[in-house]
Amino acid sequence: MRFWLALPLMIFVLAIVWCAGFAWFCVDALQPPAHPVHCDGIVALTGGRDRIEASLSLLDKGVGDRLLISGVGPHATLSQLAEHAPVPLTPELAARITLGRRAVSTIGNGSETASWARENRIHSLLVVTAGYHIRRAMLELHRAAPGIILHPYPVRSPVLRRRPDRATVLLLFHEYMKWIGSNLGLSRGVNMAPRA
Fold it and tell me: Which of 78, 92, 138, 173 gives the lowest tally of CB atoms within 10 Å of its CB?
């Protein structure tokens, strides 16, 4: 009987905690990146053009020695991806870039990044993705490659630069729920495309 009396209070407390967590998540998604530290490599998780542009600029500045662009579509070329980059795609720069084409989810990004890091003897990584995605990306990459030192570099995507609307709130809500699921070990889905 006491349990049933306490249940509404428990639900109320959980709702307050959830709302406070969501508010923190939204504010956190808008934070600018810290000054990047030099790493062995940079990984950009596809899903927005700004991520690739930022990662190419960081590579050009020497923040990382090599760059993996993870989750690239099967027919996309490096020239297409770098079309709007703030730096020219020189042969020297292109030689330091790998296009990862197998990841089809954030968990897949982690697996693809871990394999690339092993092959290239990468011990520290700058992770470039959207601010609303950075927390979950860091979690999944750490699970896939626990021995690698990870540094976040959140990019403010165009959707978060404009006045918030229903679509923005829904995006943040879905990402918040996915982040909670990842923390609870509930991440599921297809992670890697089959090898050609």
Answer: 92
Q: For 43-73, what is each residue's pLDDT tens digit? A: 999 877 789 999 999 999 999 999 999 999 8
Q: Where are the domains of the chain?
A: 31-155+164-183
State pLDDT tens for residues 136-161. Answer: 999 999 999 999 999 999 998 777 77
Which residue matches tokens 């020239």? 79
Give the model confidence (pLDDT) of 157-171 as tens digits. 777 777 778 888 898
